[in-house]
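Board notes, transcribed. Complex of a protein with iron/sulfur cluster.
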Amino acid sequence: MNPVFPHCFTPLDLGFVTLANRFMMGSMHTGLEETEDGFPRMAAFYAERAAGGAGLIVSGGVSPNRDGMLGLGAGERSFPDCHAEHRVITGAVHDHGGRILLQLLHAGRYAKHDHPVGPSVVRSPINRHAPRALGEDEVAQTVEDFAASALLAREAGYDGVEIMGSEGYLLSQFLCARTNLRTDRYGGEWNHRKRLAVDVVRRVRESVGEDWIIMFRISVLDLVEGGMTAAEVIDLARSVQAAGATLLDSGIGWHEAQVPTIMGLVPHAAFAFATRRVRDAVDIPIAACNRINDPATAEALIERGDADLVSMARPWLADAAFAAKARDGRAESINTCIACNQACLDKIFVGEEATCLVNPRAGRETLYDATAVSASRRIAVVGAGPAGLACATTLAERGHRVDLFETESRIGGQFNLARVIPGKEDYGETIRYFARRVDDLDNLSLYVGRRATMEDLSRGYDAVVLATGVTPREIDIPGIDHPMVMSYAELLGGRAAGARVAVIGAGGIGFDVCEFLTAPRHDGRAVEHYLESWSIDASPDSAGGLAEPRGEESSRTVYLLKRSSDRFGRTLGKSTGWALRGALQRRGVSMIAGVEYRRVDDAGIEISVNGEPRRLSVDNVVVCAGQESLRDLYEPLRANGTPTYLVGGAELAAELDARRAIEQGFTLAQRL
Ligand code: NAP
Ligand code: SF4
């Protein structure tokens, strides 16, 4: 029995096969599915996760026929077109002791190609094409396509399939009257609407035989108007169990739902209640999912009986050895997913490959060999923010002798500011992870509270990396030195603000500062507070799990100001910006564009808006006007002939984000 996580490491006996533990790597599209050398890269990607202890892996979604393709990339193919190539993936996973399911996903009206299909002609708000309604014979053929693809998956070496029955894809679309207006045997009353999902499971079981895993991903909470009621969800779960499903996986929210379900502002394991409801009604195991990113949360979930497995997708991007570290008493060394979406989902949305902000090697396992050790050189890294930490630790792991200098008394740089923003608390986990990695490396010496001087850096280093970061930009308006003015760094560093605040600058940090100033304290009721804020009805009575929307109070009056006149939040993450903007609007933050700053005085700040003078009587002004690079040492080092490199904000402050900073630090360390 595992001494720390006994429930997570209790094997799960499925009758004909036993899973080694309860940690499942959930399905995630990585973009490798569409790249030319995608199969060997996916094989290496999944094999590392199998070696890293995943009890069960689910592949990215592949369509059982051409109609159902997501159409994310030009190279995408339906499963029957490419099943033979999948052997490279299944072989690699099995060689590393893992088990892998193929996810069969029919996108239905979410397909981004020109000819989507669906139960009825009801356009999705996230697709410009309305679907064509499938004929009754085509629906029956779709069932056969699932069954045929499952059989091909078995031949390709998969240990089973996951049938995607949630997130608003085709099977969800048939299940709900909001998208299913049919009057034939697949529409109308509930028993007809559920027919497609149940038939798919039944036919897949008939096709593949008894001793093979069929997991059905069930939408335990649709989070859209007219979604399934809890009674329908439970009935569906029982029906797919009777039709031959081995396991259930939870799905939360249709993709078009106006509720954030995986962002950092969603508390850990917030949806366990919905999985629990289904678990109590069926006899087959069920996985919980969404915002579970650490083994302690997983252990508590399984111990309480909320779920039998825990499905995590992004946490396996962040750390390929997640379960092995938990198993071996090294949970402190887990590189935790911080739910930023910046290098994974936001990339997929624009057709690029996914990687991970805190682990830039994810998806690039064949490009960067984790075990490569080069000749040992003496290298100084100046600055222990994200870029410097990524660089110094990677250099040391590659065999170099590294001295890491940090002016502050602690490591972490800008992440120390980010971690105090509500919803970004997990950024602190990245600092914990790097601290442990630094501790584990005998050839890396850390000097905190030490400003590196030219003298320090002239002591025979073969190279110097400047990761000295940024400083908040100071702006020049009359009265800017008034005591009511502070930088975002001062505010987030602990300086108190009054009840009325003007925020200058509406970039990522301006938005974060508004969140910091207005987010209500939840006093240990994080899940309840989140459910209330986003009008989620956790009772079994509502359709789709939605309650009547309510306004939200803020104890502060906040103005978010910018000079430009374009849309607010344009630079925020694609998958996260809408929710942050919506939360601030609900709390009454005034967003004012086209501002000219005139002066700050005892009465507040005087501005003009599109030429019209306006006075905002505020207690404080917080400046979030971007940053400037700190790299004073660069020219002197170059002048004395020291090979010197810049990474992160020191290299370029404009559009700096942690993704670029960590990636630059990591890739430079691979080259040196
Ligand atoms: P930013 O995104 O460049 O925004 C700076 C803001 O300051 C701009 O909106 C600009 O607006 C204003 N500004 C610039 N110069 C000014 C001046 N001289 N006087 C008055 N206003 C001025 O920078 P940031 O907010 O500091 O963010 C830094 C980086 O971190 C960005 O890349 C950002 O994307 C990233 N980040 C992202 C998030 C997120 O996505 N949630 C959160 C934090 C940070 P106007 O010119 O219109 O006035
Ligand atoms: Fe998690 Fe961010 Fe990495 Fe995506 S990019 S896996 S959200 S840490």
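The longest strand covers residues 213-221. The chain has three domains: 12-348, 378-472+630-671, 485-519+554-625.
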